[in-house]
Design a protein that fits this description.
The chain has 92 residues and is α+β, with helices and mostly antiparallel strands. 24% of the residues lie in helices and 33% in strands. The chain starts with a strand and ends in a 5-residue tail after the last helix.
Amino acid sequence: MVTAIVMIKTEVDRIPEIAQEVSGIEGVSEAYSVTGEWNLIAIVRVRHHDDLAEVIPGRLNKVAGIVRTETHIAFRAYSSHDLEAAFALGFE
């Protein structure tokens, strides 16, 4: 499984509609409205690296009202359980 985090800049007055459309794209597992420079963050999960091309530039970037995107591909996932174990090393 390949996971990508996509930061999305949108037309501000259309954030809810764009978020709904983005979240409906196959391969997008989650979409969040956020504060800061970006308006939305989408989590894309696909089976193969090549599938990202179909989801992100092929569909997501074509949603009307999206002005700009920036994509980060995840190398490794750490669950909260893994992080708790890592920080607890040596503290018993």
